[in-house]
Amino acid sequence: MDAPFDPADQPTGILMTLSPLVGRVLAPNPSPFTYTGTQSYLVGTDDLAVIDPGPAEPAHLDALTSAIAGRKVVAILCTHTHRDHSPAAQPLGEATGAPIIGCAPLTLDDDGPRADAAFDASYRPDRVLADGERLTGEGWTLEAVATPGHTSNHLCFALPEEKALFTGDHVMGWSTSVISPPDGDMTAYMRSMQRLADRDDAIYYPAHGEPVDNPQRLVRGMMGHRKQREGQIIRYLTRNGASGIPDMVSEMYRGIDPRLHGAAGRSVLAHLIDLDQRGMAGPLGDGRWQMR
């Protein structure tokens, strides 16, 4: 019998070639929220872009330096500024001389449940990419695709030479993304998901989880999942009347790891805020919500 899959027992610090233009190095930061850890991508052959350099852990920085192997780094790009994605940008930039390019800086007090997702206050980009802006290197192009929702500053990066999209945390290869207010926004997330559903990318490279080779089907499924969750919330409040989020989570997320209940509550709150904005539900001021 095969041993059960253990996200913490995956090979870190090794350059894995995924395509002629894409390599991947896994950071040693597995958790219930990061799965096997943050995946940093190297794009290019003779000159490189590094996407989501990850946590500023010495072992991971050494692994990235080894994978770069003396080649020129044109840019270090970050999809967003949660602490498992961007802190290594500054030391890697100092080591390689490469500029930090990509998402806008964003620092908020995060009252969510996951310490690893606090915003990276050290992130200082040399250039912020607007939606549709491009970077080029020898044989490759990266185009910014604005995808707010998981965070307001989230970008994906398209690689048109391979019809690939680096999706950060917007679409992951193992789980749906946590949408945690006040910065996480369910309305924006669903709009961004529809944008991806309308694209013709052939493969996704997420920051967590394996590559996705039928991305539109996954996106449609994730959108359907969110609509189902919204329906659950509406039915719960209609049946039970005014209720608090912990009670909703206990019923709607039966069987999940209890360590994820806090994150589930944030996503429920994001749904409730979206329903409030649409005039369908509202808060009572005592932590409870009700249908209007």
Automatic annotation (TrEMBL):
InterPro entries per record: LACTB2_WH (IPR041516), Metallo-B-lactamas (IPR001279), RibonucZ/Hydroxyglut_hydro (IPR036866), Sec-metab_biosynth-thioest (IPR050662), WH-like_DNA-bd_sf (IPR036388)
Metallo-beta-lactamase domain location: 37-208
Taxonomic superkingdom: Bacteria
One Pfam assignment: WHD_BLACT
Gene3D superfamilies listed in its UniProt record: Ribonuclease Z/Hydroxyacylglutathione hydrolase-like, Winged helix-like DNA-binding domain superfamily/Winged helix DNA-binding domain
Name assigned to this protein: Beta-lactamase
Organism listed in the record: Sphingobium ummariense RL-3
Organism phylogeny: Bacteria, Pseudomonadati, Pseudomonadota, Alphaproteobacteria, Sphingomonadales
